Amino acid sequence: MDKSLVAYFSPTGTTKALAQTLAEAVGADLFEIVPEIPYKHADLNWMDKKSRSTVEMNDPSARPAIAKMPDVGAYDRIYIGFPIWWYVAPRIINTFLEGCTLDGKTVIPFATSGGSGMGKTNSVLKPSCCGAKLVEGKVFRKNASKADLAAWAESV
Prior knowledge:
Blueprint: E1 4-8, H1 14-26, E2 29-32, H2 52-57, E3 77-83, H3 91-98, E4 106-112, H4 121-125, E5 133-134, E6 138-139, H5 146-155
Parallel strand pairs: 1-2, 1-3, 3-4, 4-5, 4-6
Helix pairs in contact: 1-5
């Protein structure tokens, strides 16, 4: 049986609830991706061209620092959760993936969104997943059921 990790980034708490439910549904360990410098409310204002999130998302090379990285060596499957920002994963997800040794692992993105789908998420994440199999991700409502998440996880 594969050993799984659910890693997630959730600056507002929305993705956290989904990640916790997914971890329960698949019997996975849970890890929160915490930025070295936490995002404040103003940092997340996508309408402000000078907000931290907007500046990062406009720079494909931006790699926000993470406070602590997990050891993913024991895991076969890594579910990676995040809110969709500008039709892709936040740049901190690239930081996380690039900081892990992913050889032979399966990376499975999942996301929350205010209305958009996964967009170009996989094509943007693929270069950060060296040695891993990157599965097509899926957007879920924050209150997706444990049964729905278990069924999805079984299908990927």
